[in-house]
Amino acid sequence: MQPFISVIIPVYNIERYIGKCLDSIVGQTLKEIEIIVVDDGSTDDSSRIIDRYARTDSRIVAIHKTNGGVVSARNCGIAQATGLYILFVDGDDHLAPDACERLLRKAQATSADMVIMRFDIEYPQHKEEPRFWSQDEYDPVTAIHTMAHEEFRWSLWSRLMRKELFDRPVDCPPQLIFGEDAYQITQLTYRAQKIVTLRDKILYHYTVRDSSVSQHAMTQQKAESIELYPQFIERFLQQTPDSEMFREDIVYIKFQAYLILLLKNWETGMKARCRFMSHSLKKYPRLKEISEVKRFTKLIHLYSFSSILGKLYMKYYIRKGKIRI
C-alpha cells in the first residue's frame, strides 16, 4: 500500500537528538507513513542509532551517503519517497504524536498542495512560540507576500507538501549555506495552487541545540551566502508572470538579510548595504515595523552617510550590549 506521507529526515552528527526525533515519528497516530532517514556522512554514533531503529520498524528506510550538506540529503530522500505527501523533519527536532494525522486530514479536506503548521522553538532554558499566519487559506502570490512582510520562518520543515510539487527539481546552488530554505520554499510556494494553515495546535517542536557564540559566528562564506540568497529569490520571482507584484517583497527580503549582517557587524560592504536600507526605509515606511529596525534606524542612516560615524555608533551599541556579535 502506498504510504500517505514520506517523512524525510536529514541527519548529521546529532547522536544526542536523533532517538527522540525518531521516537516521535515512529509513534505517530497515522501509521501509513514511510520514514526516510538520510545520514549525511555523520562521524558520531548517529549512523548506528539510525540502523538500530531501521531494524525494528519496516517503515524506516536508512540511507547512508558521503557528506554533501542538508540540501543534498533532502534531495536524496525525495528521490526515494513514494508517499502522496512530503514532510521534512530536522533530525534534532520532534513532532506532536498526531502531527501527521492532522496534517493529512487538513490536506485531504481542503485539497491543498501545502499545509503550514504551527511550531514552537525550544531553547536550552525556555520555549518560544513565533507569530503565525492569520488566514486559513492563501494563493501563492499572497503567501510569498506574507512571508516577506511578516518575518515568518522560511522553513521547509513547517509544511506538509504534495509530492507533485517536487516533480521538477527545486533549484539550490551549492554556495548557499544560509538561506537555502528561503530560496527553495519560495519556489515550492509559487508552484502550489492552494496553501492552507493548521492553526489549532502546535505540531512541530524546533530545537535550538547550542546558543554558543561559535554556532552563530559569522564567517566569510556565511556572509556571502546571506547576501546571495535574496538575489536568487529575486531572480526567480522576476522570471514569473507575477513579477510586478513581487517588487516590494524583494525589497523586504533583501532588507531583512542585510539587517542580519548589520547586527553581526559584518563590515565588508556595510556602507552600500546601509544605503540600500536607508533608502528603503524612506520608500517603504512599514519596514520600521520589522522587529529590531526601530532600535537601529539611526545606526542604519549614520552608516549610509559615513562609515566612520557608523563604526563609532556601532562600537557604542556593542559596548552597551545592544548588539552582541
TrEMBL record:
SUPFAM superfamilies attached here?
Nucleotide-diphospho-sugar transferases (SSF53448)
A Pfam family annotated for this chain is Glycos_transf_2
> What UniProt keywords are attached to this protein's entry?
Glycosyltransferase, Transferase
Domain named Glycosyltransferase 2-like: residues: 6-131
What CDD domains does the record tag this protein with? Glyco_tranf_GTA_type
By its UniProt entry, which InterPro entries does this protein fall under? Glyco_trans_2-like, Nucleotide-diphossugar_trans
The record's annotation in Gene3D superfamilies points to: Spore Coat Polysaccharide Biosynthesis Protein SpsA, Chain A (3.90.550.10)
- The positions making up the signal sequence are none
Q: Superkingdom of the source?
A: Bacteria
Molecular function via GO: hexosyltransferase activity
Protein name in UniProt: Glycosyltransferase 2-like domain-containing protein
